[in-house]
Amino acid sequence: MKLKTFRKGVHPFGGKEYAKDCAIIALEPEAEMVYPMSQNLGAPSKPVVAKGDRVLKGQLIAEAGGFIGAPIFSSVSGTVKAIEKRLVINGSLVDSVVIENDGLDEAVEGFGVERKLEDMSKDDIVNAIRNAGIVGLGGAGFPTAVKLTPKNADDIDYIIVNGAECEPYLTSDYRLMLEKPEEIVLGIKAMLKILPNAKAVIGIEANKPEAIKTMSEVAKIDGRIEICPLKTKYPQGGERQLIYAVTRRKINSKMLPADKGCVVDNVGTVFAIYEAVYKNMPLIHNILTVTGEAVNTPGNFDVPLGVSHSYVLEKAGGAKKETLKFISGGPMMGFALGSLDVPIVKTSSSVLGYLHDEVADSPETPCIHCGRCTRACPELLVPQLMGRAMKNQDVEEFAKLGGMECIECGSCAYVCPAKIPLTQMFKLGKIKIREMNAKK
To answer: Cα–Cα distances in Å, from 210 out to 20, 24, 215, 322, 405?
Structure first.
């Protein structure tokens, strides 16, 4: 079978072997749980509880801050200890609800009560997803209910489920496909009821043959669901790259996938849809990988939202003394952690530990004009020229070179022999362009 893929890209060390054979282990919550109000793309959520309030598991503690927003729910029962600024993954201080866990695990009425899809209308399903606070768990955290209700809903002919998990080391989506395939397919069936003119395609990289086999067997129950084996290459799971690989349709920074008849969600998001629609459960937990050469016991964990990275690492046996670096997320697009005392949020995907810090150990040298960055860029840009524009602080030239089309995948920086921090430069360039446009 010919594997589908996109143009260019890179082949970093996979690192999947650390945790791919580790079954998902459910973790208990911590004594203190922290829920930042910024857990999705768009407007921050707004607290609806006050200090001293008692809350239940599954209770709304923050409402959506706008149409592009999502509510937040408590993953424990307990007492609101404070509403204050707390440190988050990217180093910012964000308004957060802090709850003292009482250990009683008392849930709100109706939590976990089973529902039948055939008894629900399209609006019922969308409202269940919206009211559960589900956002994209494989990327920026775009509210899922908004994504599933585009203006051109009748024109959507592809629901693409991202099972590529192309980031090195990460294996939580892989384990989810092996352990919860029926639930994923039921989640897809709910999406198909919202978008009846679509068919569903689950894209899975070829380095996950067991997942391809398992999902193929379960997907047989619905003729509108098929499996698409993909070439193992980074960033195969990028939204634009996945759409191109599956449909050969192209999108850019000025378009949404819906403009090309597509809706894309990763398998973790689809599992959350299953729990919301069929189990009446809001998004209060996430499945992530704790892995890397510095982690004593790598694994995949079902984690209550609000626990700290340090707590999750502790449950994975802790890290070796000589550990030099921790990353939240994948090594290509994740954030280096200045502190492990930051909470797990909806979009958290992993905790990675490294014994070596290649970035710190590889000082930047002048560009040698080798062209490797251009050969790697999946957006067909010329990072060498874009980098020169940014070094000259010429943001307008950066924009003319297509800077806004950069997806910040890190492929160019990965292959650069001069170790020029191209991705960081491009992130800064895009921020400056947005600021300029806002002023205009």
So the answer is: 11, 16, 8, 35, 35
Which candidate, 245, 278, 283, places its Cα nearest to that of 262? Answer: 245
pLDDT at 178: 98
Residue 2 scores a pLDDT above 90: no
Between the alpha carbon of residue 102 and those of residues 51, 76, 115, 420, the distances in Å are: 15, 8, 29, 49
Whole-angstrom Cα Rg for the chain: 21
Pairing of strands 60-63, 78-87: unpaired
pTM greater than 0.70 (yes/no): yes
Q: How far is CA 285 from CA 305, 307, 386, in A?
A: 5, 10, 40
170-217 per-position pLDDT tens digit: 999 999 999 999 999 999 999 999 999 999 999 999 999 999 999 999
pLDDT at 376 over 70: yes
Residue 103: CB atoms within 10 Å: 12
pLDDT tens, residue by residue, 224-234: 999 999 999 99
